[in-house]
């Protein structure tokens, strides 16, 4: 598995903020590259899965990390509501 | 009880199967009405304090052994599970097992409206000498009731009734009371008779409303699903072939609490299965088990007599509310 192009930590944030952060920050990496996100929100697991299904990005892996989980997602060429928005949140 | 409905004989006189001297009490009539709805005899009908207690006792009283509970059942049933059975994104049981054991499989899901084919599951489970408990709360009065379960439990609030739990225990079913108070002699112990009478009346009223407005509410369900698809990035849970009055959807990048508040401002009372609306900050296990987005969740349970203009207005305000609440 390649090293993610970007790693973000959303610990402390609650839904829908982790997924929103992921949706915005994934725009910073080139198509086909991966982003890793750490979250301690119990809703993040199901939400990252559902978000990837709804937007078309590819969910790769999910593993335990500290108090939460670390998700790996690959950026695909898709049109999302967050496309073209300023970076960060 | 043998109170069959009166009928007119050819000579025009009212004939009943009851003796003229026997007066049927409102309680007896209510019990008779509820058993008829459930397709059981009066001896198979029991009442307890509330729905969750009925669900708990129904499963707990079946013979000891593994409990296989579908992942979208109520928490009090899942708490007894030795094995949780996976469901499809539409909320249908995946396993096609005929292994022996005790199963708990609800008919209509109270959160996403999906309908489980109880009778065909019962046939498979019985083939493996298993037993089936079914929570029948949400389809009762609306759809033709399944018949082949071994024990059923119902929350009377699902059909607009009072806080009351109903247990339907087939006489062939080996069920022993986990509490000492539920013997046939004391089948209404701790339950106010008036609640049973009230529940029977509520069920009758609910059934006639559902019958009258079923098509109209089905149309609303289809229109709302179409509107959600149009607005985009809304994940509608359940299955389009589910019961029409229960519909749940999640709005991407929105907070459930904000949506509930925005709909309330427009005069709509909606619930949410999002983590931010739960006391333990956990999202709804039904949304998780069916792989749905858990944030930005809105849950509707539509009364069958909801006025047409109110339904039309809900669909009308949806895009504006979503746009106002979305964090993008």
Secondary structure tally: strands of chain B: 12
Distinct helical segment count of chain B: 8
SS-based class of chain A? alpha+beta
Which range best describes the helical content of chain B: under 10%, 10-25%, 25-40%, 40-55%, 55-70% or over 70%?
25-40%
Mean pLDDT of chain B: 89
In CATH, the architecture of the largest domain in chain B is: 3-Layer(aba) Sandwich
So, the CATH homologous superfamily of the largest domain in chain B? Type I PLP-dependent aspartate aminotransferase-like (Major domain)
At the first level of CATH, what is the class of the largest domain in chain B? Alpha Beta
* Form type of chain A: globular
Main interface: chain pair and counts: A-B, 22 and 25 residues
- Helix and strand succession of chain A? EHEHEE
The level of helicity of chain A is 10-25%
Total individual domains of chain B: 2
Kindly report the CATH topology of the largest domain in chain B. Answer: Aspartate Aminotransferase, domain 2
Q: Please report the first level of CATH classification, the CATH class of chain A.
A: Alpha Beta
Record field, number of beta strands of chain A = 4
Biggest sheet overview of chain A? 4 strands, mixed
Give the arrangement of secondary structure elements.
The complex is a heterodimer of chains A (89) and B (328).
Chain A: E1 6-9, H1 17-25, E2 34-39, H2 44-55, E3 58-65, E4 68-74
Parallel strand pairs in A: 1-2
Antiparallel strand pairs in A: 2-4, 3-4
Chain B: E1 7-8, E2 14-15, H1 26-38, E3 45-48, H2 51-60, E4 67-70, H3 75-78, E5 83-85, E6 102-104, H4 118-127, E7 131-135, E8 151-155, E9 165-169, H5 193-231, E10 234-236, E11 246-251, H6 256-265, H7 285-289, E12 297-301, H8 308-325
Parallel strand pairs in B: 4-5, 4-6, 6-7, 7-8
Antiparallel strand pairs in B: 1-2, 3-9, 8-9, 10-11, 11-12
Helix pairs in contact in B: 1-5, 5-8
